[in-house]
Design goal:
This protein is of the alpha/beta class and about 300 residues long. It contains nine helices and twelve strands. It has helices at about 5-10, 35-45, 60-70, 95-100, 120-130, 150-155, 170-185, 240-250, 255-270; strands at about 20-25, 50-55, 75-80, 95, 105-110, 115-120, 140-145, 165-170, 190-195, 205, 230-235, 255.
Length: about 300
Amino acid sequence: MTANALSRGDLVPNLDGNSRIYAVFGDPVAQVQTPRLINPLFAAAGCNLFAVPFHVSASRLTATWTALAALPNLAGIGVTVPHKVAALALCDELTETARVVGAVNSIQRKADGRMHGALFDGQGFIDGLGEHRKCLRGARVMMVGAGGAGRAIAHALCSEGLERLDIFDIDKVAVDFTASMVNAAAGRDLAGPGDPSAFNHDVLINASPLGLKGDAAFPVDFAAIRPGCLVADIAALSAETPLLRHARSIGAATSDGNDMLSAQIALIAGFAVGQRAGVALINPVQVDPMPAANG
């Protein structure tokens, strides 16, 4: 690339004095995919807006947030590990989902400078199912994992007409919290602790890192998964997990982490450009899978 080409702005042709920034905070931040995936959506929609990663430690979160939030050309802030819970307390307003789940992953800076926090993990999962979303209505669902992503997905499942949501995690406190949250939101006894050794469900969701790395065995016996099941594994991003490999081999419907990520990025993009929470900038499209890590 020549100096003349750089001076012409060939790399970022619409970067000018009117450009706005969507800051993405993380620690670490090198693995964050948001800028790679969301900037093409901004460009395709003709938005003079750029997502830029910022390596922000937990000890510097408040100071960095305060400094950037004061800038009129800040469109918003995206947060990932380890800031999703801490950032919630810095917001001036919250969506109902963010308030109930207790975390945010996207913050919209309003014209008056107020920071409006939202969480799109759950809706991203549901939207990412595409035509398989219909499988949720009347279904018995087993979800493995009651961490941050699991709680968000469980909350989103409340409005999908499930018959039952059984939740498994080695952290029993997390299971009880998630089940109580779901039942309060649903207004009925919808969720409770699940026994993966007794799997006889219509839908299996892996909202944990199991299968991504390490030697921990997945708690559901693969032999119990029927061809008519829907199997969703959000851990499957750069590679196919053993769970999805088996599900596909028997002809079960599947959804992986890239489906959720595609839908979630479109929702975050819509929020960043000023739309109300839950409105995608464009219809979610399948993104290129996350590059596999070296080594």
